C-alpha cells in the first residue's frame, strides 16, 4: 500500500453528481411547467405529487455527496485518510442510504399511480394496487434495515477501528438484497403497461412512442444490474471510500435520470427521474408556438375581418390540437371513454390552413 500511487476521483465524483442532480431537477421542473400550461385534462395527479416529492427527498443526497462524502474521502483510498475522516465518511454514507431507500420507493409509486390513472381495466387496476402495496412494504423494510443494520446505530461508522463493541449485518448483502428486489419490481412494472398497449385505441405511431417511453425503464433496470455487479465484488472492510464510488455512481444515474444516492451509487436512479419526466416536454413547446401564432395572425387579417375573430379561431385550433397531440391526455381520454362506454373524448376542429402555425 505504501508504494501504491495516490488515487483521487473527487473531481469526477463531484462533476457526475452535480450534472445528474441539475439534469433531473430540470426535467422534473419542465414537467411541472407543462402541467401548469397544458390542457385541463392533464393537470396534477398523485403520480406528479410523488414525482415532485421524490425530487425533494433525493436532491439533498446530492448535497450530502458533494458537501460531505467527497470531502470525507469518497473517491480516495481509505489508507490516505485520517481516522476522524473515515468515521465522518461512514456517518454521511449512512444518512445517504436512508435518502436513497425513501426516494426509490417514492419514485416507483409515481410510476404506479400514473399507470393507475391511465389504465382502466379492472384486472390491471388490481395488479397496480397490489404492486403499490408491495412497493410500500419493500420501501419500509429497506428503510428499517438500513437504519438498524448496526447496533448501536453509531457502530455503522465506528466499527472500522475494532475498538468498540457492537455488531452489524453484512452491509453489502443488505444493499444487494435491496437491489435484487428493486430489479424484480422494475421488471414487473415494465410488463404492466406493455401488456395494455395492444388494446389501446391509439394510432400505431403514438402507440410505438408510448411503448418506447415505457421501455426506458429497461435502461434503468440494466443500470441496476450493473450496480448490483459492483456491490457483489465489494469488500466493505478493505477500501470502502474507493470501492463504493462505482455503485454510488450507477445508483445516481438510475435515480436522477428520469427513479442515486449513495451508499451504493450515484448513477442508477437518475435514469428513472428523467424517464418519468421526458414524454411531457412537447406541450410546453406547443404552448409557446400557440402564443407566437396568436401574435402573427392577429395582425394578418383580410379586410373586414376583426382581430378578435382571428385570435379566437387560432386559439381554438391550437388548444384542440394541443389536447389531441398530448399522449398523456389521450390516454386519460381513453380511460374515461372506457369507463363510460363511449367513444373518444377528443374532438377535432377544421380551420383554414392559413391559421395553422
UniProtKB/TrEMBL annotation:
<dbReference type="GO" id="GO:0016020">
    <property type="term" value="C:membrane"/>
</dbReference>
<feature type="transmembrane region" description="Helical">
    <location>
        <begin position="92"/>
        <end position="115"/>
    </location>
</feature>
<comment type="similarity">
    <text>Belongs to the SAT4 family.</text>
</comment>
<feature type="region of interest" description="Disordered">
    <location>
        <begin position="333"/>
        <end position="357"/>
    </location>
</feature>
<dbReference type="Pfam" id="PF20684">
    <property type="entry name" value="Fung_rhodopsin"/>
</dbReference>
<keyword id="KW-1133">Transmembrane helix</keyword>
<protein>
    <recommendedName>
        <fullName>Rhodopsin domain-containing protein</fullName>
    </recommendedName>
</protein>
<feature type="domain" description="Rhodopsin">
    <location>
        <begin position="31"/>
        <end position="250"/>
    </location>
</feature>
<feature type="transmembrane region" description="Helical">
    <location>
        <begin position="172"/>
        <end position="198"/>
    </location>
</feature>
<feature type="transmembrane region" description="Helical">
    <location>
        <begin position="15"/>
        <end position="37"/>
    </location>
</feature>
<keyword id="KW-0472">Membrane</keyword>
<feature type="transmembrane region" description="Helical">
    <location>
        <begin position="49"/>
        <end position="72"/>
    </location>
</feature>
<feature type="transmembrane region" description="Helical">
    <location>
        <begin position="136"/>
        <end position="160"/>
    </location>
</feature>
<feature type="transmembrane region" description="Helical">
    <location>
        <begin position="210"/>
        <end position="232"/>
    </location>
</feature>
<dbReference type="InterPro" id="IPR052337">
    <property type="entry name" value="SAT4-like"/>
</dbReference>
<keyword id="KW-0812">Transmembrane</keyword>
<dbReference type="InterPro" id="IPR049326">
    <property type="entry name" value="Rhodopsin_dom_fungi"/>
</dbReference>
Amino acid at each position: 500500500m505504501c508504494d501504491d500511487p495516490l488515487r483521487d476521483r473527487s473531481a469526477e465524483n463531484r462533476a457526475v453528481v452535480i450534472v445528474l442532480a441539475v439534469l433531473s431537477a430540470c426535467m422534473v421542473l419542465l414537467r411541472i411547467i407543462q402541467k401548469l400550461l397544458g390542457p385541463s385534462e392533464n393537470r396534477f395527479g398523485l403520480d406528479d405529487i410523488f414525482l415532485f416529492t421524490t425530487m425533494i427527498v433525493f436532491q439533498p443526497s446530492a448535497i450530502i455527496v458533494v458537501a460531505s462524502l467527497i470531502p470525507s474521502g469518497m473517491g480516495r483510498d481509505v489508507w490516505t485518510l485520517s481516522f476522524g475522516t473515515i468515521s465522518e465518511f461512514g456517518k454521511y454514507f449512512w444518512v445517504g442510504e436512508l435518502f436513497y431507500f425513501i426516494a426509490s420507493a417514492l419514485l416507483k409509486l409515481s410510476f404506479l399511480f400514473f399507470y393507475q390513472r391511465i389504465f382502466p381495466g379492472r384486472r390491471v387496476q388490481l395488479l397496480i394496487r397490489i404492486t403499490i402495496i408491495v412497493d410500500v412494504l419493500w420501501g419500509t423494510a429497506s428503510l428499517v434495515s438500513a437504519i438498524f443494520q448496526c447496533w448501536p446505530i453509531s457502530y455503522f461508522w465506528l466499527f472500522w477501528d475494532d475498538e468498540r463493541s457492537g455488531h452489524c449485518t453484512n452491509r453489502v448483502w443488505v444493499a444487494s438484497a435491496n437491489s435484487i428486489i428493486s430489479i424484480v419490481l422494475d421488471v414487473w412494472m415494465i410488463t404492466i403497461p406493455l401488456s395494455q398497449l395492444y388494446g389501446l385505441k391509439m394510432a400505431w405511431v403514438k402507440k410505438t412512442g408510448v411503448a418506447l417511453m415505457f421501455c426506458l425503464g429497461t435502461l434503468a433496470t440494466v443500470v441496476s444490474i450493473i450496480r448490483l455487479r459492483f456491490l457483489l465484488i465489494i469488500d466493505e472492510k478493505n477500501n470502502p471510500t474507493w470501492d463504493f464510488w462505482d455503485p454510488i455512481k450507477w445508483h445516481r444515474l438510475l435515480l436522477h435520470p428520469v427513479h442515486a444516492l449513495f451508499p451504493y451509487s450515484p448513477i442508477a436512479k437518475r435514469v428513472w427521474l428523467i424517464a418519468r419526466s421526458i414524454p411531457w416536454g412537447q406541450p410546453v413547446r406547443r404552448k409557446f408556438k400557440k402564443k407566437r401564432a396568436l401574435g402573427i395572425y392577429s395582425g394578418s387579417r383580410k379586410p373586414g375581418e376583426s382581430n378578435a375573430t382571428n385570435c379566437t379561431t387560432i386559439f381554438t385550433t391550437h388548444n384542440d390540437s394541443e389536447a389531441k397531440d398530448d399522449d398523456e391526455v389521450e390516454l386519460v381520454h381513453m380511460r374515461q371513454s372506457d369507463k363510460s362506454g363511449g367513444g373518444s373524448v377528443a374532438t377535432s376542429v377544421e380551420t383554414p390552413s392559413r391559421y395553422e402555425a
